[in-house]
Amino acid sequence: MPGANPRRVVEQFCTRFPDQLVSLTRIIGDDKASQFQIKRNLKKLHEESHRLKGASYCMGFPRIGAEFFKLEQDTQRLLDSKEDVTPKLMERIYLDLSRIAKLRRSVDPEHSKLVQSFENPASQTLDDADAAALKQLLKAQHILFVEDDISVRNLVRELLSDMGVGEIRMANSGQEALEVMRSFTPTIVISDWHMKPVDGLALLRQVRSGATPLKVQTPVIFLTSENHAEKIHTVIRNGVDHVLVKPFNRSVVTRAISRVVQQNQRTH
Hints:
Largest sheet: 5 strands, parallel
Number of strands: 5
Order of helices and strands: HHHHHHEHEHEHEHEH
Helix content: 55-70%
Radius of gyration: 20 Å
CATH architecture of the largest domain: 3-Layer(aba) Sandwich
Strand content: 5-15%
Strand order of the largest sheet: 2-1-3-4-5
Oligomer: single chain
Number of helices: 11
Shape: globular
Distance between the termini: 34 Å
CATH superfamily of the largest domain: Response regulator
CATH class of the largest domain: Alpha Beta
């Protein structure tokens, strides 16, 4: 089987990118709107900037991801402020969006570090016995991947399929994941953190409390763009088995799956 090449997924992301920028601008709405409406718009902008930050990193565009991170931070500051959001305060948001728009031409598959890493891979060495054992381990897995961004879902589906994972199911939110679990029993759940209406942390807590059809010890891996130590410790305290910080690649995902499976076998 030929190795996975995410170029098609990255191309789709790049094609949608201009429309996503237009959508972000529309979210802001009218400067003359009420404070309630402005704050609601900022909350939506914060959610979308967080999603696009993670997707940009995953698609191999770290500079764009960093700009979305700045937009995410600036919207959060306005949301946390007890002062009225004035046009003057909104100037920073407009500047953030302007910087992102100026970089849109760089959102091209030829500039994607992800595509480059797959089309010009570093050599890896794995002896025959280890390779065979890893192949069997992956084949035995039934993975449920939960993520609200379609580009990241498509990318991970391709990676997991190419890795030889036995069965793969997708869900676009924690709520949909709970519905999928009624008819599908994963050996591993890989979930994004920030989603609606049920986020990854709430999903993790339900699995660990026995509120889902899954065994409470089912391995759960978090895929997130969060890199704040305290937030990472929060999910660890709630029983996550591993945290993958975006961006990621095939070898990182493979190691994470292998690690949690072997750990689960030792402890249970």
